[in-house]
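Tokens in:
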């Protein structure tokens, strides 16, 4: 089967789904689901969120230079996805869809109480890749939280039951753990 570019994007999946929370200078909180998200550096730990044009996530993040990635688990996934709705600024997606704010540890932007794992970031740069319809919000990861731990200090992904995004309304649950030998 041959795939056009847009369909071939499906192959770059499944990806974690996160609910990105950000706060404006006025203290308004925004929450929206994202899946074009990933790590990009280890030392220092950094990540990116790829955001389409004109979204509040980008605007709020530019204002206060902070954002939180709240990893979406099965138990609150439907509410998290509903936060895609574009509400007027100042109306809280979290409140509207039955979710709650929780104080973050490193940043003023709140975390989501229902999220079992969070990653708190400081915006370091916004990059506009040539020809792209998205911008990359680059974040330095200041720290995170995870309610479930295995083998002394590792996040227990089995218990997190992460919701993975494929495309559109297609999702998967994160799969089983397998062990492979590495060459280093
Ligand atoms: C599962 C899922 C993943 C999404 N991933 C992205 C993404 O990676 N980048 C993006 O720009 N929009 C993404 N969206 C769409 C945004 O959530 C949507 O445009 C939202 O209204 C943006 O809200 P904001 O303007 O408050 O930031 C996704 C939507 C869903 C449901």
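Residues out:
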């Amino acid at each position: 089967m041959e795939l056009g570019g847009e369909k071939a994007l499906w192959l770059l999946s499944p990806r974690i789904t996160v609910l990105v929370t950000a706060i404006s200078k006025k203290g308004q909180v925004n929450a929206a689901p994202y899946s074009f998200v990933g790590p990009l550096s280890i030392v220092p730990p950094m990540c990116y969120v790829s955001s389409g044009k004109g979204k509040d996530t980008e605007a709020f993040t530019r204002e206060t230079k902070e954002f939180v990635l709240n990893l979406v688990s099965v138990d609150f996934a439907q509410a998290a996805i509903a936060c895609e709705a574009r509400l007027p600024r100042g109306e809280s997606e979290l409140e509207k869809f039955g979710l709650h704010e929780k104080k973050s540890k490193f940043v003023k932007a709140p975390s989501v109480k229902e999220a079992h794992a969070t990653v708190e970031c400081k915006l370091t740069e916004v990059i506009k890749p040539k020809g792209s319809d998205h911008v990359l919000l680059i974040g330095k990861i200041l720290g995170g939280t995870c309610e479930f731990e295995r083998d002394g200090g590792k996040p227990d992904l089995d218990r997190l039951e992460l919701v993975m995004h494929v495309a559109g309304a297609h999702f998967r649950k994160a799969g089983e753990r397998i062990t492979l030998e590495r060459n280093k």
